[in-house]
Amino acid sequence: MAGSSAGGSRLGVAEAPTAPEAPTASEGPGASEGPRRDRPGGARLAWLDALRGIGALLVVFEHLAHVYLPEVRTAISGWFVPGTWGVFVFFLVSGYIVPASLERTRSVRGFWISRLFRLYPLWAAVVALALGLALAGLQPHTRSMLDGADPAATAFAHLAMLQTLLASPSAVYVMWSLAFEMAFYLLVVALFALRSHHRSAPIAVGLAVAAVAFGGVLPSNGLSRAGGTTLVAVLGTVLAIVAIAGAMSGRRRIALAGALLGGLLAVLLFGFNGTSKPWEGITMLAVMFLGTVVYRVEHGQIRRRTAVVAVVAVLGCAMLTGVLHVADTVDTAARLPYQREWAVTVLLAALTFAAGVALRHRRLPKALTLLGVLSYSLYLLHPVLLEAHVAMFDGSRRNDWVMAVGFLCVLVPVCWLTQRYIEAPAQRLGRRVRNAVDRPR
């Protein structure tokens, strides 16, 4: 294994296969700067922003429909879940681009700096806004989730964005997916350190099969119930911080130990401290690695036959695991609609991503790519603003398209402002910090 350079943690890159030019678009659940022509590959990757835009619209529609369009939501219930569809699209995009960004720079330190500056500034602003509005009585959902929760455990769990995997409630309910993203990052870094990052296909298939075989018997929040929520939340957060700090170290052995610690932590949390439905979490992790499989076959890193087998196996297992394990949590009479909507939702997400890949060289609607640029803000802000909107403008309204459109007319400009004045400056600062610490000395 090659030693690390003074400019950053570079685990084993001297012997790693050289990857083709990787995407440079932003990673994360909607985090994007958009396709800029001054960024290499930016215009070429507009399709990823378009997919993020679609994902954001689906998630926003899911929650908006529950409030203002209940008849529409009832009509599609039992057939597909727009919010889950959108999150699956986000996860496929993350799987496609996140490992590639690490392999392109080959700097674990730069990778983590980029992630932290992309995700945390807006996340912190939204958490502060949600808590402030909760104190003002405009966030009943946030208050109900946090009431009765251990403040210390909840605060610690949020520090590492792992609260969902640490049996703690989220300050904003959509932040559960960020915990899955963060655990995915930990695994990606660990695989890179072990030089196993090219094994995306067997990893994706293995996870999908594990979800089918063990998803129904794995304990929900098992570690937290055994050791106590506060202890596990504090310990898990400390270990995550130590793992990330270690992986960013300029010393080879410390960097390797940190990367492996992070990967082990992610495996333990997904396997033994997952959500109320462990099979869902493992399936979503498999879907992320499936996105990586698509990237690798597109860039000639794996055989097409291998990719086809992985796609069929992961999607087949993903649909099957819902059909099998939904019976564990749903009454017998309601099983068929839930089984059907899970399977259809998985299929719709896969078809959406496949359409994006097929159209990646075509000119796409600017509205979709713009929504992709705003998608991280749209994703985090919409539940906070929706609750405040309902509280201020009569939450008893039903089937009201005017209120739904009015909310969107407020949401999009606010997200444009947060992207311009919070996300973009933080990302620019992150690039400067990353370039400074990775500069050879």
Automatic annotation (TrEMBL):
Fetch the InterPro entries from UniProt. Answer: Acyl_transf_3_dom, Acyltransferase_3
Query: Which residues lie in Low complexity bias regions?
Result: 14-30
Q: Where is this region: Disordered?
A: 1-38
- A Pfam family this chain is assigned to: Acyl_transf_3
Please list the GO terms describing molecular function: acyltransferase activity, transferring groups other than amino-acyl groups
Gene Ontology, cellular component aspect: membrane
UniProt KW keywords: Membrane, Transmembrane, Transmembrane helix
GO biological processes:
lipopolysaccharide biosynthetic process
Query: According to the lineage, what is the superkingdom?
Result: Bacteria
Q: Which residues form the Acyltransferase domain?
A: 46-418
According to the record, the segments passing through the membrane are 76-98, 119-138, 171-194, 201-220, 226-247, 254-272, 278-295, 307-327, 342-360, 367-386, 401-422
Start-end of Gly residues biased regions? 1-10
The name this protein goes by in its record: Peptidoglycan/LPS O-acetylase OafA/YrhL
- Origin organism is Thermomonospora umbrina
